[in-house]
Amino acid sequence: MMEKCRVSNSLLSALVVLTFILTGVHGCDLSQPVCGAAAEGDVTIGIMLPCHQKVSALHERITPEGFHCSDFDLESFMLSLAIIHEIEVINAAAFLPGVRLGYLMCDTCSYASKALQNVEHMLAVNKSLSVMCDYTNSIPTVKIILGGLYSEVSIAIARLLNVFMVPLMSSTSSSPELSDKTRYPVFVRTIPSDVHQTKALAKVMLHYDWNWVGVVYGDDDYGRAAFRSFLRHTEENGVCLAFQEVLPHYLDHSDRERRIRQVAEKIRSSSAQVVLLILKAELVNFLFREMMRTNTSRIWIASDSWSSSWALAQMDGINTLGDILGFTFVEGKSEMFDSYLKNLTATPGGHNLFIEKYKNIRFNCTPECFSSMPPSYCPSNELLKIKSNEACNINNPQEQNDDYLVKALDTSKAFPHRIAAWAVANALKKLLKCDNSSCSGDTNFPPWKLLVELKNVKFKLDGQVFYFDENGDFLNGYDLMMWEKGSQHRRLRRIGKYHIPGERIELHVKNLNWLSTGNSTTPQARCSQRCAPGSVKKILNVSCCYNCTPCVAGTFSDDTDLHVCKKCPNETWSLEGWSECKPRWESFLRWSDAHPISMVVAAAFGILLLFVVLVIFLVHRDCPPMKKAEVRLSCVMMAGLMVSFASVICFIGRPSMHLCQARQVMYAMGFTLCVSCILVKAYRTFLAFLPFGQITNRYLHELYKPPVIVLIITSLQGVICLLWLLFDSPHVDNTPPSPHSMVKIIQCSEGTTFIGFGVMLSYIALLALVCFLLAFKGRKVPQEFSETGYIIFSMLMYLFVWVCFIPVYITHDEKRTPVQASAILVSTYGIIFCHFFPRCYEALRGTETDTFERILKRWGASILSSLETPQPKDAEEVIKPVSHEKTDPVLLSYNLGANMKKRRRSVSC
Fold first, then answer.
1. What string of H, E and C letters represents the secondary structure of 709-727?
2. pLDDT of the residue at 784
3. How far, in Å, are 40, 154, 724 from residue 121 at the CA level?
C-alpha cells in the first residue's frame, strides 16, 4: 500500500512539474489567465513584479496572442516575496484591527505591454473592465499596485492608471520623469529619483578624481532619462564623456549581439578607464561576457538597476573585469524575512505558483537537463546552477525548503519593498480610521482616496522616519557599494553613503583595495593630468583635455586646474610658473653684505696707506728721491686720491639723490686733481729732456706753471660737474625691474642721457692719455731723474681699468654700482703702488743718488757720444762745465737743448 502511494505521489508530482514547465512557456500561472499568486482580503493590494526576465520571440509576434515569458528571475522573485511577507506580518500583527490585507501578484516578464495586460486584469470588476466617462466612483478590487521593477514598465502603467487614479508605488523605478506629477499624478516611490543618483554618481567620480568616463545606456525610458540627468551633473562636477553608446533594451533584439560587440570594441579602444553602465542587469551580463572574452578590465560604475545584482556577482570570470562600484537604495536586513525564505509556503487560503516553480527548479530531479542535448522544457544553464545536490533524493519538491535564497541573494535589497507595504498599511490606517481595536472606515473605497492619504503619510520603520516629498519620492539616500573580489565570485561591501539633503558622500572605508592598482592607491581616470599650482589649463577639445601652461611673470595660480592666472597684488611679483606672489627684494650695496664691507675696508686701507706715504714724504722731504718727486705736488695728489677713496663710501647704502651726486663729484674732482699733478710732472720731464728749437723751447717753458695748470685743469672738471648737476643730474633710478627678476635694483642713474657722466670720465681719460703720451715721449730719460716709468704704468693701469669698465657698465645694469666702485679702487691703488711706493722705497733705503747737474751732464755726454763723428779741432764744446751753484732744472734743460742743437749743426757741417 505504501509503495502504491509512493508511486502515485511520484506520478502526480511529475504531472504537476510537466504541466508547470509547459505552461511556463506561456506565462507564470497555472489556474488563472494572468496572475500566479493571490490571497483573499478586505483590501487587495496589487503586486506587479517580473518573475521572468523577458518575453520570448517578441519580434516574431504578429497576432494578439498571449505573451511567452522565459528565464525565471530569482532576485525579482525574492522581492515579490518580501511584499507578500510584509503583508502577512501586518495581518498577523493586527495593525489594521478587523481588516485583512489581500494581494494579487502578476508577472510583468520585464515587458511594459505584459504589465498593461496585468493592469487590465487587476482593475476588472466581475472579470470585465467597463469604459466610463467618469471613474470617480469606480471601485476596483485592487486599491493600489506595487511595482513595476523597471521605470519603463512603471511609466506605461502610470499612464494607464492616471485614467482611474489608482495609486502606483514602486520601490525600484527611479526615472526622473516619474517625478513629474502633472504627467504621473498617481505615482509614488519609496526610493529617490535618478536625479539624485546621477548627481551622486558624478560626485563619486569627482571624489576619486575621475573626469574622463564612458557611458553605455539602454534605449528605454529609464536609460535615456538617467543619461540626460547624468549629463547635466557632469558639467557641474567637471566630468567629461569620452564616449556614449546605446544598447537596445529588448533582450531578444536581433541586433543585440552585434551592438554589444560594437560597444565592447568602443570600450576597449577608448582611453577612458571608467565606464558607467545605465543598463538592465541582463544587458550588463551580455556585455560582461564580451569583456571577459577579450580579457578587458575597466572600472565599472553601476546604476541602481544592477548595482547589487546577485546573478552578475556570481558570473564565472567576474573577477577579471576590474573594479565595480555603484549606488544602491538604502537597504536593511530583516531576520523575520530571512526566516520566511527558509520556510517558503503560500499564504494560507491563497496560492503562489511562483513559489512552486522555484521549488521545482531547486528540488525537482531532472538529470536529463544536464545532458549534452537537454529537452526544451529544461531551464537555462544559469538556473540549473541553483539545483540542489539532493534534488534526486526528494520525493515531493513542494514540501522542501532550505536556506539557499538567504545565502545566495542579498535579502537586504528587499528593504524598500517592505517599506512600500508598510506605507500602504499606514495610509490605510488613516483612511479607515483605525484605532487600537477596530477600523470604522469602509473598506470598499475608490482608490483615489488612498492616493490622497498616501501622499501625506509619515511613519517610522526600523528606527527611520519615512515620508513622500512633493514629487512623491523618498529622500533616504543611497548606499555606496564596492564589489569585492572573492575566491571565484564577487561579494558586495557597503563602503559609504550618499546623503541627499547635503549632497555629500560619506565614506566608511577610507583605504580601499583596488583591483586596478593592486593596492590602496586610487586608480587614475583623467584625460589630462592635473595642472599643478603655477600653471593653468589650455583647453584642447573638451574641458577635461588640456595642456598645462605656466603662468607668465606677474601672475600666479595657487590651486590645481585653474583656467586663468591671477594678477599679483600691489608691491608683489612672481616669476614664470610661480604659485604665489612675493615682495621684490631690493638690491643695493648694504653695509652688512660682504662685498660692500670689503670695499669699505679697501677704501679705508687706501686712505691709511696715503697717510703713511704722506708721513714718509714729509719726513724724507730733503732726500734726493723726494726732491725729484716734488713733495708739494705729491701731497696734492694724495689729497685727491683720498677724496677718490672717500667717494667709494658714498656707493654703499640705500641710494639717494644727494649720495648719487656726491659720489660722482667727489671722484671726478679728486681724481682730476691727482691726474693734473701727474700731468705737471710729465710735462716737466718733457720740457727738461726733449730738444726743441729755441723759440719753441722758450714758449713751452713759459707754459710751465704748475699751480696754474693744476688749478685750470681741476676747475675745468668742476665746470663739467656743475653743468652735469644742473642739466642732467644723477638721481635714483626709477626704471621698473625686469619682469623676469624678483630683484628690484635700487641704484643711481647717472643722468637721463649719461652725457655728463661720459664727458666727466672722458675728460679724466684724456688727461691720463696726455700724461701717458708725455711720459712715453720721455721714456729714455734716466729713471734716477724722471718718473716717466711710474707715470706710464699708473696711467696704463687707469686706462686699462676704465676701458674694461665701460662695456661691463653698459651691459650689466644691475652691476653698475659695484663695478664703478671697484674701478675707482683699482685705479686709485694703481697710482699708489706705481707712483708713490717706489719713491718711498728709495727714500727708506737711503740710496746715494747723483745730483741733478751730474745726471744732466752724464745724460748729455751719452747722447753726444752716440752722435760723435770726426770733428774739426775748433768745434764748440757740447756741454759747458757745470758749476756747483744751484741751478733751475728747467733752465738747465733749456740750455742743454740749445747746446745739443748747436752740436748737431757742427757735426752736420
1. HHHHHHHHHHHHHHHHHHH
2. 55
3. 16, 16, 112
**Nearest by Cα to 105 from 350, 348, 411, 341:** 350
Q: In this predicted structure, what is the pLDDT of residue 17?
A: 33
Is cis: bond before 860, omega within 30 of 0?
no
Q: CB-side exposure of 336: number of CA atoms within 13 Å?
A: 13
Q: Where are the beta strands (DSSP E) in 551-660?
A: 555-556, 566-567, 585-587
Tally of CB atoms within 10 A around 65:
8
How much of the chain is in helix, strand and coil states, percent to nearest 5? 50, 15, 35
Partners of residue 483 on adjacent β-strands: 492
* DSSP codes of every residue in 246-263: EE-S-TT-TTHHHHHHHH
> Collapsing DSSP states into helix, strand and coil, what is residue 301?
strand
Give CA–CA dist 403/713, Å, rounded.
120
**Choice between 689 and 303, residue whose per-residue pLDDT is larger:** 303
Pairwise CA distance, residues 602 & 646, whole Å: 11
Sequence-separated (6 or more) residues with CB below 8 Å from residue 7 = none
Q: Over the stretch 35-89, which tens digit does the pLDDT of each residue have?
A: 889 999 999 999 999 988 888 877 777 888 778 888 888 889 999 999 999 999 9
Nearest Cα residue to 384 out of 75, 74, 78: 74
Alpha-carbon distance of 224 to 219, in angstroms, equals 6
559-595 in b/e burial notation, b at 16+ Cβ within 10 A? ebbbeebbebeeeebbbebbeebeebeebbbeeeeee
For residues 292 and 298, give the distance between their C-alpha atoms in angstroms, rounded to a whole number: 11
Torsion angle of C-alpha atoms 107, 109, 110, 115, degrees rounded to 10: -50
**Which ranges in 270-403 belong to alpha helices (H)?**
281-293, 310-313, 335-342, 353-363, 381-384
pLDDT in tens, 403-455: 999 988 888 889 999 999 999 999 999 999 999 889 999 999 999 999 999 99
Q: Tell me the sheet residues that pair with 123.
A: none
Q: How far is Cα 770 from Cα 836, in angstroms, rounded to an integer?
A: 20
Q: How far apart are CA 891 and CA 888, in angstroms?
A: 5
- CB atoms near residue 22 (< 10 Å): 12
* Sequence-separated (6 or more) residues with CB below 8 Å from residue 864: 878, 879, 900, 903
Among candidates 659, 656, 637, 658, which has minimal Cα distance to 648?
A: 659
Q: Which set of grid coordinates corresponds to residue 90? A: 501586518
Give which of 49, 297, 266, 14 is closest to 150, Cα–Cα.
49
Distance CA 855, CA 842 (A): 17
CA distance 309 to 568: 55
β-pairing, 142-147 with 168-170?
parallel
Determine the Cα–Cα distance for residues 613 and 626; give it in Å rounded to an integer: 11
Question: Could you tell me if residue 442 is left (phi over 0), alpha (psi between -120 and 50 degrees) or otherwise beta?
Answer: beta
